[in-house]
Amino acid sequence: MINETSELRIEFKSLKEKSMSVIFRTVERPSDPRVEDSPKKYFPQLVTLGQSVNLNFIAQKMQDRSSLSIGDIRSTMQNFVEKLKEQLLEGKTVNITGLGVFMLAAKSKGEDKAEEVTAKSVESVRICFQANKELKITKTATRAGEKLDLVSLDDYLKGLTNAPSGGGSDDGSEDKPGGGGVDENPLG
User: Fold this and answer.
1) How far apart are CA 36 and CA 34, in angstroms?
2) What span, in angstroms and rounded, lies between the C-alpha atoms of 96 and 8?
3) What confidence tens digit (pLDDT) does each residue in 163-173 have?
4) Does pTM top 0.85 for this prediction?
5) Are strands 150-152 and 22-30 parallel, antiparallel or unpaired?
6) What is the largest distance, in Å, between two alpha-carbon atoms of the chain?
């Protein structure tokens, strides 16, 4: 029974690793959208799987690796957002080591003369983010957990239809005793 549980965990982990891939689909677009009747080409377009994650989800994932409570993490992150906005409204950029730089950018139509530029020239302001090199994702990463694995949508869907069926859930507890998988032996 223990050997069977180990095999199921390995199989489940390999399925999870497959789901960590970034999926793309092929779309046809003009090669140069600025040029009318430019020749069509095929491009990869990244696909988002599932719903976007929220603050509660991130807090739960962080809590799994820290001694802080989910409430403490959520509160800290909410305070961070408030203080980030406060600093941006004071005209500062905010550089978070390992994450990136947040800054404001203005959108306007432009004026013919420099003296015509006023505060009214600004149509809107947006927050821009530039990732630090530690956060950037590349196809050439050497660390296994940071390597970008691109899979076509067709290959991904084929993999789902060929995947073995079985129990298990992705509750982040696959390596902890009592993780709660359907086929897991509760006595170890």
Assistant:
1) 6
2) 40
3) 665 544 444 33
4) no
5) parallel
6) 80
In one-letter notation, the amino acid at residue 17 is E
Q: Can you say how many angstroms the Cα of residue 92 is from the centroid of all Cα atoms in its chain? A: 26
Residue 137 has pLDDT above 60, yes or no: yes
C-alpha distances in angstroms, 123 versus 66, 110, 111, 171? Answer: 43, 10, 12, 45
Q: Following DSSP, what letter does each residue of 61-73 receive, concatenated? A: HHHTTSSS-HHHH
The Cα angle at residue 46 between residues 30 and 106, in degrees rounded to 5? 75
Q: How many CB atoms lie within 10 A of CB 119?
A: 6
What are the contacts of 59-66 at 24+ separation with CB within 8 A? Answer: 60/172, 61/172, 64/172
Main-chain dihedrals φ then ψ at residue 125, nearest 5 degrees? -125, 140
Q: Which of 58, 30, 60 is nearest to 42 (CA)?
A: 30
Provide CB contacts within 8 A for 16, sequence distance 6+.
170, 174
